[in-house]
Amino acid sequence: MKALVVRAFGEQPGVETVADPTPAPDGAVVAVAATGVCRSDWHAWRGHDAGVVLPLVPGHELAGTVVAVGARVDPRWVGRRVTTPFVCACGTCPACRAGEQQVCERQEQPGFTHDGSYAELVGLRHAEVNLVELPEEVGFDVGALLGCRVATAWRAVHHRGRVRAGETVVVHGCGGLGLAAVAVAAGAGAHVIAVDPSAGARTLAEQVGAAQALPTADDLHGAHVSLDCAGLAVSAAASIRCLGVRGRHVQVGLLPGGAVLPVDVVVARELDVLGSHGAPAHAYPGLLAALPSLGLERLVTRRAGLDDAAQALADVGREPGITVLVP
């Protein structure tokens, strides 16, 4: 198969012909129809993730068709249109048995712990735990985004932030994750304020449901829920400071180690500070049911083939919206 292969951190990866994956006994092989280009992929390529071992095929946000399964997997999965959470859970550790597969103690992540989806085929473990069947009406572009950004936003808004209709929700950072959070929170009936220095990102945020879009959060006060989707110390602090008494801060973007947050504000206002990491496969039915009202197709602003994948990876964050690769 053809795949984009990273052989040195930060250096230009190239498309190569590599061996096709074979399914593990509990796994599946998916023919990739679409895969999102995510900033997390960029971090892996740049060498910012200590656990990444080269050579590696990036990509963790995918949709496609199952073409093979292992001996311990129901053969009826073959031919189905699927996506998968980027956290591929084992299904048997204490966290998984408690239903919290998004924090599985033995999790694998395509594009990080093993070869990912910037390829024509991708192998996935623990298929029965992680595969999510896509309805026919869900296109592969949107289906790919359900593997990471949209599912992550869904859980951050509904399960961690506990957003209710009529509440004011502030979303800091309108990259792909933040835009998904805007759409999901607006779909929940919230009054959504998007914050991003990019005028293009703010325009796209308004198109997917933001009532307001501002370059900074300096004048915001009294929000019920605030989500930091940028993963910066400054945006996390701004997210906390814009909350009202008993508000909920949800940290969705990965913060650098050593970030200092305004804990004095947390204590004085009795704020909830919550982390949110992906979503388990069993949480997808609610998301799939809500998809028709979210307009997520507008988040995909660019499509490219594998030959352009290296440039798409290098360009992450330079233009608003999401790039989807079509191998």
From TrEMBL:
Domain Enoyl reductase (ER): 10-325
UniProt keyword Glycoprotein present: no
UniProt KW keywords: Metal-binding, Oxidoreductase, Zinc
Cofactor(s) essential for the protein: Zn(2+)
SMART domains per UniProt: PKS_ER (SM00829)
Pfam families named in the record: ADH_N, ADH_zinc_N
PANTHER family associated with the record: ALCOHOL DEHYDROGENASE-RELATED, L-THREONINE 3-DEHYDROGENASE
Similarity remark: Belongs to the zinc-containing alcohol dehydrogenase family.
Descriptive protein name: Alcohol dehydrogenase catalytic domain-containing protein
Species the sequence originates in: Rhodococcus antarcticus
Lineage of the organism: Bacteria, Bacillati, Actinomycetota, Actinomycetes, Mycobacteriales
